[in-house]
Structure to design on (350 residues):
């Protein structure tokens, strides 16, 4: 009877822990993402704009460290709530969600696990840096490379709010291109990334569950340990790399002559620059809108449409210890290549 009572108590505890995670996620996303984006969607419909470009000062600016600091401050003013939520969820996923369930759903290298994680990313609507801590948390819980990547990449690339803004501010052509390439990245590239994990060590589900049960520390103790590790691991690299990119942006996004503004070289430059650079959620829309108003061609703009939100140098650094190096190189190259292809499509038909 005592064993049966312990099992029932364990099941109840697991249920309430999972319920708490979902509750925190729903409340956090409602406050940080869903409600603000509802109003922003109305704004984009009424004004064909969602605000100024975060690169606005680049139009007439030159490099100074003061400008780099200003960009860093502006960036974190835009993302701090989502960044905190991402770190919070990344730490909670390690202590609240049941190990056995995560392994069954997200622990396989099958397309099913990748698809499940990609679909789970859709309501998150986070930028690549804010989704990175959750991807780190999933990897620490032994989610597969493909599933963790799908969640990380899917958040920014197939964000439904961004697609709505894009339709009203840019055009439906940009939206269709972004959706198609976003689906390829989220479900295709993430799935094939599993192939770069050579001979993964077989994971014993029973042993992992047993190890989780052996950990008798209180929930608060385990969560604070997870949170502290996440903060120490993620925050320093995040802040420093954003500062560096804030300084480098004057060279990453050069002003081009009329003859170069829609050239293949411009597409290549902006595809690579977009992959490295860091922006808040949906900031690629006003950036593209502003740059095109200044004369940038549709080709480089379409390249930025894909590479700017997908990944960035800061987010790559944040997940560097959680994924094999070959996987991150493959993902980075894939983003650039798909950005170039999108740029060529944009050059031809936009």
């Amino acid at each position: 009877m005592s064993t049966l009572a312990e099992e029932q108590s364990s099941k109840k505890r697991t249920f309430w822990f999972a319920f708490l995670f979902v509750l925190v996620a729903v409340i956090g996303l409602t406050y940080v993402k869903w409600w603000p984006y509802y109003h922003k969607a109305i704004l984009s419909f009424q004004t064909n704009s969602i605000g100024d470009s975060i690169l606005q000062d680049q139009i007439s600016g030159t490099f100074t460290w003061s400008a780099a600091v200003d960009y860093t401050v502006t960036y974190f003013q835009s993302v701090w709530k989502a960044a905190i939520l991402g770190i919070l969820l990344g730490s909670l996923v390690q202590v609240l969600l049941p190990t056995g369930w995560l392994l069954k759903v997200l622990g396989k290298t099958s397309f099913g696990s990748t698809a499940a994680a990609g679909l789970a990313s859709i309501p998150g609507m986070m930028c690549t840096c804010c989704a990175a801590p959750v991807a780190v948390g999933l990897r620490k819980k032994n989610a597969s490379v493909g599933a963790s990547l799908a969640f990380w990449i899917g958040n920014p690339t197939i964000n439904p709010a961004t697609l709505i803004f894009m339709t009203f501010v840019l055009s439906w052509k940009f939206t269709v291109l972004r959706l198609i390439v976003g689906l390829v990245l989220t479900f295709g590239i993430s799935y094939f990334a599993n192939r770069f994990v050579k001979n993964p060590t077989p994971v014993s589900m029973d042993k992992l569950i047993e190890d989780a049960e052996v950990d008798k520390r209180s929930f608060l103790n385990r969560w604070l340990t997870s949170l502290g590790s996440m903060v120490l691991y993620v925050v320093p690299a995040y802040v420093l790399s954003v500062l560096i990119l804030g300084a480098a942006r004057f060279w990453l996004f050069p002003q081009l002559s009329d003859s170069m503004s829609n050239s293949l070289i411009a597409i290549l430059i902006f595809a690579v620059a977009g992959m490295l650079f860091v922006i808040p959620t949906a900031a690629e829309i006003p950036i593209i809108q502003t740059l095109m108003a200044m004369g940038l061609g549709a080709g480089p703009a379409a390249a930025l449409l894909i590479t700017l939100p997908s990944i960035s140098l800061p987010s790559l650094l944040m997940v560097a210890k959680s994924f094999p190096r070959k996987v991150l190189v493959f993902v980075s190259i894939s983003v650039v290549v798909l950005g170039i292809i999108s740029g060529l499509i944009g050059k031809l038909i936009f």
Observations:
- The two ends are 70 Å apart (CA to CA).
